[in-house]
Amino acid sequence: MEETNKKRILVVDDDDNLRSVLIDKLNISGFDVAGASDGREGLNKAFELRPDIILLDVLMPIMNGQEMLRKLREDEEWGKKVKVIMLTVVEDATVIAQAVQDGSFAYLIKTDQSIDDIVEKIKGMLKM
Amino acid sequence: MRKNLLLAEHLTISSVVLFIMLGAVFASFSLVEDILTRPQRYFSTELSSEEIQFILVHISFVIISVLASYIIYLVLSLHTRTEITVFNTTKSLAASLEQFVKFYEEAPVPYIIIDKSGKIINPNKAALRFFGVVLEEIKEKDIFHYQPEEDKDRIEKLTRYYKGNIPINREEVRIVTKSGAIKWALLSIFETKDPESFARTGLVTIFDITEQKQLDQAKTEFVSLASHQLRTPVATVKWYVEMLLSGNMGEFSPKQNDYLGTVYKVNEEMIDLVETLLNVSRVEIGSVRVESKPTNAIDLTEGILVELSPQIETKKINIERQYDDNLRNIESDPKLLRIVIQNLISNAVKYTPDGGTVAIRFKESLGENIIVVSDNGIGIPENQQNKVFTKMFRADNAHNLTGSQGTGLGLYLVKSIIEAMGGNISFISKEDEGSTFTIKL
């Protein structure tokens, strides 16, 4: 985690299997990756590690993704600007609208994406 | 009581008649007596003026008495008949009023009578049960008093309607009962008049749809739960297999790769099925919202063709395109339109033998956007054509097709979506010659 030239990604998802395959894939693709299994842990790790991009699930125990995003945006400095990609199975118009309003950069449905697509999207957002 | 009065009235009138009749009889007697006592006087030619007067007075009196009795008899009998009719009508009116009041009071549907300002005057028992109150608590309250604060705009609208004599017919409203429970109802208000003051009143009917709403809610929750529970595992399998297939985890033997490829393909079919099931559920519970915006139907179709290119190339299907440029910018819901066109093209490819042709034609005619997808595939047997758009339909000849995995939900979904979008779909098909599906939007 100390290599400074690597871009840092935080994967926040309560599904261990999904989180773990995403972390593996992103590691292989040359990112510095951390994981969190709920919104509260995600929020703590986000402020501690200051990742370049946060991949954020919606439905999670303790604190859901929507709330974590809101709390991030409450931070006037770093949290307000950090790039967030919602990566979820929730396809609800009001949830999507709220996420867009709260400044998520993309809203992806897991089943629509191949794991390569996700890496490509991240690279695109980081202009890599 | 009224009957006794009637009897008394008749007795009085009858006595008067009897009295007059007696007078007439008396007058006749005195005349006859006078004739008998001195008949010579009446047969003589000369009568004194007093005698003539006597005779005339008596005869007139007799005639007048008889006439008067007759007139009184007529009036009396007419009066009696009217009285009887009025009495019977009143009696039956009272009975039907009683019947009506009972019907109103005991009806299982909540009814409320309100005054012209919307204040509750008379709720029936079902209404009291519906609101969970007793009469004293609800009387004089505004009819919209029990609606939740959040529905303020709606309450204002309905109040304006009622006061402006605009009919309110089966308007969906939420009602907070005394216990705090929220109920859903279809509310109608019919204009009536107060039977005494003739002032304007309203008859409110409330049709309780709470159970139906709760059921819809449960279905919606099921759909979102199912989407979570079903999508997560298939997405997990997809990404793990992709990792293995990418070679990042080490190389596999060709056979192992083959097997992984099959796992991937079947999982993709599973994803399609899950997505279709979710879409069908959304359509069925009516949660599909058509969100129209400028849409490029041609780009959208080309995107679908790219997605389907593995199947198209494997089967060497020839794709013919005939695009009207007007369809580059139509008002439509791109997400729903995509489901529709994707299903039609994928069906055409699936049910057309290797080397066959699938033609996609777009045209605009009389303000209608027409999308036609035709193929020269296996077609639909004539005796099954009426079932094409029913749920879980798969034609007999489709079952026999090797490698064809159909859910039988696609065309059902397509038709439901097209109808939600206000369009229509039709087809012509002949077995072993092909099918042509036409959508008008």
Task: Give an account of the 3D structure.
The complex is a heterodimer of chains A (128) and B (441). A five-stranded parallel β-sheet of chain A has the order 2-1-3-4-5, with helices on both faces. Chain A is built from six helices and five strands, in the order βαβαβααβαβα. Chain A starts with 7 loop residues before the first strand and ends with a helix. Chain A is of the alpha/beta class and 128 residues long. A five-stranded antiparallel β-sheet of chain B has the order 2-1-5-4-3. A five-stranded mixed β-sheet of chain B has the order 7-9-10-12-11, covered by helices on one side. In chain B, strands 6-8 form a two-stranded antiparallel ribbon. Chain B has 13 helices and twelve strands. In chain B, helix 1 packs antiparallel against helix 3 and helix 11 (334-350) packs antiparallel against helix 13. The interface between A and B is medium-sized, with 21 and 20 residues.
Mean pLDDT of chain A: 88
Structural class of chain B, by secondary structure, is alpha+beta
Largest sheet of chain A: 5 strands, parallel
Total helix count of chain A?
A: 6
Give a concise summary.
The complex is a heterodimer of chains A (128) and B (441). By secondary structure, chain A is α/β, with parallel strands linked by helices.
